[in-house]
Specification:
Blueprint: H1 5-13, H2 15-26, H3 38-54, E1 58-62, E2 66-69, E3 72-75, E4 79-84, E5 92-98, E6 118-119, E7 126-128, H4 136-152, E8 159-165, H5 175-181, E9 192-195, E10 207-212, E11 214-223, E12 229-230, H6 231-234, H7 241-249, H8 264-267, H9 273-281, H10 286-293, H11 303-311, E13 315-322, E14 333-334, E15 337-346, H12 352-370, E16 375-384, E17 387-388, H13 394-407, E18 412-416, H14 421-430, E19 434-436, E20 452-454, H15 455-474
Parallel strand pairs: 5-8, 5-9, 9-19, 10-18
Antiparallel strand pairs: 1-4, 2-3, 4-8, 6-7, 7-20, 10-17, 11-15, 11-16, 12-14, 13-15
Helix pairs in contact: 1-4, 1-15, 2-4, 4-15, 5-14, 13-15
The chain binds zinc ion (ZN).
């Protein structure tokens, strides 16, 4: 069922009001995890509560405990929850967004004040400001949908529950416990979930995102002498930790990106025909990635291989060495202890534990082969599981139809190469199908300077979120 035409017309007629709403939201510098902005984050929660309540939503703030910021114990930003509609004949839909933002200072290189929503003076339709796309734009999109229905006096086609978090940019501390505690309360009985907190792959093609890679981060520490040594005195007489570490690190991944740890490749879920088809249909050109990385340094020249490399295959990256001499100049030190840092991006069915087993076994075996008298310790410093949803679930089919209605084109089916940890928390605890439905474009610059959202994405995004609810209401669950 296509969206109510009066809803779509309302959105077109009220663009200026909707931009004003986003402007007010951006003006509250709700930077989480920073003592200076604790009050602003709270103000942003109040802003949401006030708007939601005016729009007919039963909304409340929930305290979720406290945390320590630079030695001071402060309350965690509250979770804002809201619910509207309670019709047993309608589907129950849960949506998530976050109202906190990344830090931003004009002197970081912003062209305009980061906490003032500024339209591009050249008339491109870009709206610059911290949080414009991540994630205040999408959150205001949901409010716009509510406003249109309230003002037009039409009911939403579904029962809608909302959860807006104020700690996403600072690790979503406390959210998992909150979800767990409300599993049989606020979150009970939901049919599906929609998270709007990621981006199109490019700047032209809407997409639906159905997977995220996980990550295991490792530290390999090699230590031997009890103090740093001089190579003129001890070079040639001791097993050097750095030499051992290079030997180990060089055996992790080939220059072509192939992971050399035995057992890892075998764990990867085989590519299905449906997946292959979805990857082949993605709108993507090698020039896009060349532009994004600033040079032609891609491993493959094939778009599907490149996309799979980024989205559905694991990758191993070497990040750095702690304890190594790294300043300019030529110091002749033999470091006593060094730690190599590397991570593996995880995909189905490479989990935290089975991957770590392979890593530990391999590094210990390889170290033994060196015959070194140094000590080698491997540690998993943090792990996050990969996530994948069924892209043929009715919620995805509804979003597909809504995309075609609003944009006149079929969406790409993408996966993110990185992680959005809250997705996993909701998926694991609530057991729901989750749709990642982006509003902004691939060049929005979510965490960087000059973050923006295009007016057309914000307005069409509002239509998309609303149309999705209509399609969801109409679609059969099987
Ligand atoms: Zn975000």
């Amino acid at each position: 069922m296509a969206a109510n035409p009066s809803f779509l017309k309302y959105v077109d007629d009220h663009q200026a009001d909707f931009i004003q709403r986003l402007k007010e939201a951006v003006e509250i510098p709700s930077v989480s995890g920073n003592l200076e902005y604790v009050k602003d984050v709270e103000n942003m929660a109040d802003f949401l509560i006030k708007q939601l309540t005016e729009l007919g939503v039963k909304a409340e703030k929930r305290a979720i405990g406290s945390h320590t910021i630079t030695g001071e114990e402060v309350a965690l930003p509250p979770v804002v929850i809201g619910s509207i509609g309670n019709d047993p004949s309608k589907k129950n839909v849960l949506v998530y967004g976050h109202y906190d933002v990344q830090p931003a200072l004009k002197e970081d290189g912003w062209d305009y004040e980061p906490f003032t929503l500024t339209p591009d003076p050249s008339g491109s339709g870009r709206l610059y400001g911290r949080g414009s796309t991540d994630d205040k734009g999408p959150v205001m999109g949901w409010l716009n949908v509510l406003e249109a229905h309230k003002k037009l006096g039409i009911e939403l086609p579904v029962n809608l529950k909302m959860v807006f978090e104020g700690m996403e940019e600072s690790g979503s501390v406390g959210l998992d416990k909150f979800i767990e505690s409300e599993k049989d309360g606020f979150f009970a009985g939901q049919d599906c979930m929609c998270i709007s907190d990621n981006y199109w792959l490019d700047t032209k093609t809407p997409c639906l995102t159905y997977g995220l890679r996980g990550i295991n981060y490792y530290e390999v520490r090699i230590s031997g002498p009890s103090r740093d040594l001089h190579s003129g005195v001890f070079g040639g007489t001791v097993h050097e930790p750095m030499t051992d570490l290079f030997a180990i690190m060089s055996k992790l991944v080939s220059p072509e990106g192939e992971i050399l740890i035995p057992g890892v490749k075998e764990l990867i879920a085989p590519v299905t025909q449906d997946e292959q088809d979805k990857f082949e249909k993605i709108h993507f050109e090698m020039a896009d990635i060349h532009a994004a990385v600033g040079g032609d340094v891609t491993i493959s020249e094939d778009t599907v291989k490149t996309l799979m490399g980024r989205m559905r295959n694991p990758s191993l990256s070497i990040h750095g060495i702690e304890g190594a001499f790294s300043a300019p100049g030529s110091k002749t030190v033999i470091p006593a202890s060094v730690a190599g840092k590397f991570s593996i991006r995880l995909v189905p069915n490479l989990g935290i534990n089975n991957t770590t087993e392979c890593v530990y076994k391999y590094i210990n075996e390889e170290f033994k082969k060196l015959g070194s008298k140094n000590k080698c310790e491997v540690e998993l410093t943090h792990g996050g599981e990969p996530w994948i949803a069924d892209p043929n679930h009715y919620s995805y089919r509804a979003a597909h139809k809504a995309t075609v209605e609003v944009y006149g084109q079929e969406p790409d089916y993408t996966r993110e190469g990185g992680s959005i940890p809250v997705t996993l928390d909701f998926a694991n605890i609530l057991g729901l199908n989750i749709l990642l439905l982006p509003v902004g474009r691939g060049d929005d610059g979510a965490h960087s300077t000059n973050e923006k959202i295009d007016t057309s994405n914000y307005i069409n995004g509002t239509k998309l979120l609303g149309s999705y609810l209509y399609e969801l209401a109409a679609i059969s669950k099987d």
